[in-house]
């Protein structure tokens, strides 16, 4: 993958649950790593769910493999500015630990 294609700054995040002194569970997103990536919106669809219109965009995100991303899960997410991408699948391309291809879904309303 050529560096010039990695023009987007993204942050990979994982959800962490903590319990406060009152016993309340708090879910927060914690940064795994900030890096460069290529973002390609591949398809979109709109639908009406009783309360209003929603849209979902299928997106491919390419990034260089990093050891800190070796434990990446589908429950994690990618943040690009204020846009949140939910990870649908993770592909360590050719299992060579060089490139990651993520298929994500961007939710909007």
Describe this structure in words.
This protein is mostly beta strands and 109 residues long. The chain has one domain (25-108). It is 0% helix and 68% strand. The protein has strands spanning 8-19, 25-49, 52-64, 77-80, 83-92, 99-108. Strands 1-2-3-6-5-4 form a six-stranded antiparallel β-barrel. The chain is globular. The model has no long low-confidence stretch (mean pLDDT 87).
Strand order of the largest sheet: 1-2-3-6-5-4
- The chain-level structural class is mainly beta
Count of separate DSSP helical elements: 0
Give the count of structural domains.
1
Query: How much is the average pLDDT?
Result: 87
Biggest beta sheet summary: 6 strands, antiparallel, barrel
Strand tally, please?
6
Characterize the quaternary organization of these chains.
single chain
């Amino acid at each position: 993958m050529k560096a010039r294609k990695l023009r987007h700054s993204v942050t990979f995040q994982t959800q962490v649950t903590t319990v406060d002194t009152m016993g309340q569970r708090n879910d927060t997103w914690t940064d795994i790593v900030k890096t460069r990536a290529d973002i390609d919106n591949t398809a979109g669809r709109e639908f009406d769910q009783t309360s209003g219109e929603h849209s979902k965009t299928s997106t491919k995100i390419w990034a260089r493999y990093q050891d800190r991303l070796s434990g990446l899960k589908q429950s994690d997410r990618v943040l690009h500015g204020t846009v949140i991408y939910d990870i649908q699948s993770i592909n360590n391309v050719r299992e060579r630990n060089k490139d990651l291809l993520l298929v994500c879904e961007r939710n909007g309303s």
